[in-house]
Amino acid sequence: MIIDIINKKRLGKELSYSEIDKFFNAYLDGEIKDYQMSALLMAICINGMTDEEVFALTKVFIDSGEVLQFTGIIDNMVDKHSTGGIGDKTTLIIAPIVSACGVPVVKMSGRGLGYTGGTIDKLESIPGYRTDLSDEEIVNQIKNIGVVVTGQTANLAPMDKVIYALRDVTGTVSSIPLIASSIMSKKIAGGADKILIDIKVGNGALLTTRKDAKELSRLMIEIGKIYQKEVHTIISDMNVPLGYAIGNSLEVKEAMDILQGKETDNNLYDLCIDLSSTMVSLGKNIDKSDAIKEVLEVLNKGRAYEKFLELVKAQGGDIRKLKVSDNLKYIKAPKSGIISKINALELGKLSVSLGAGRISKEDKIDFEVGIRLNKLVGENVKKGDVLATIYYHKDFKMPKLETIFDIS
Ligand code: URA
User: Fold this and answer.
1) Alpha carbon nearest to ligand 1 atom 8, residue
2) Which CATH code fits 78-320?
3) Rounded to a whole number, what is the largest CA-CA distance in the chain?
4) What is the mean pLDDT of the chain?
5) What pLDDT, on a 0 to 100 scale, did the predictor assign at position 359?
6) What is the model's pTM?
7) Residue 244 gets which letter from DSSP?
8) pLDDT one-digit tens code per residue, 28-87
9) Which of 86, 189, 307, 392 could form a disulfide linkage to 96, CB 3.0–4.6 angstroms apart?
10) Hey, whose CA ends up nearest to atom 6 of ligand 1?
11) How far is CA 389 from CA 225, 246, 374, in A?
């Protein structure tokens, strides 16, 4: 009985493979309602899962669709995934860099989750950009230009897709077992041989403590072992947003700035170099120091930016039509000093209230709104300086400055 399974988990007991399989598949078939699945997800969030349960859930997610094979097309396929953060546009930057270094990239990305943005929403802010490539289109594009960034194909872990959308709006995103099975099922079904996971920690991430990040890392490595996948993890800070922009079109613009070498002195640039050189080193089986040299070369010679333009064009996007809102409001410094803190979570909440993220499953995203920071942590400001520009369309509640910036 459905209710017995929910109650069992509510009491913190271990579910068997067949209970997990039955419950989740019944949801996919429409026999279990959103509210029943939400209750189970909340019980999992609160009581956790044993490793065996996580392995079972991952298998159920994988088995809900196809498993892609790139053998003969890409040997030694490397994939990357971020657990999500505020202003995290790393995929838009590293996919073209890694591909320009000669390592093919097939990246299947997701939509926003909680206050964290999703790569697919960001890419859809480019008019015409298609995020629904078929398996055949993916293979053709990888052969032609060596890079694809698309949504999960309809038949790749379809169970995760529906659960992900439900988690987004039911306060059930920050669960280590749910994050591990969601990400690993997609990476395994996507055909990767080596998987790099960027685990974000901080108030603007799904996980807020290093202890939780380490536990997620352990669990993902264990899942990888079952499927003979080499899993590497990086734990990176998400107490401050990544780079300057938060919001879909604004983030695409910032990614283009980084690829064109216009911005090199911030946390986003540093993380992108780290992640892309790790991917190149895994893909080519070379030392990381050599991979860093290759990465810097494709960036400096403009080859990574060219690859980005090639990618956008191949997927039908017209970058000249990328737009941000013309309605601007400014957050100004009330006093002079040094910025000691920028609160990523509050910026994430503000961006969702502007319409850059979803509050309910059916919400349409406004691609043109968001926030662009003018100053980062550690910078000096004078009273009256603009700290951030807000791009908006609809009315929104201006947050109190001190909830976002600390000036000391
Ligand atoms: N990214 C995913 O794909 N799934 C999660 O659960 C969290 C981040």
Assistant:
1) 83
2) 3.40.1030.10
3) 64
4) 95
5) 80
6) 0.91
7) S
8) 999 999 999 999 999 999 999 999 999 999 999 999 999 998 988 998 999 999 998 899
9) 307
10) 179
11) 46, 11, 7
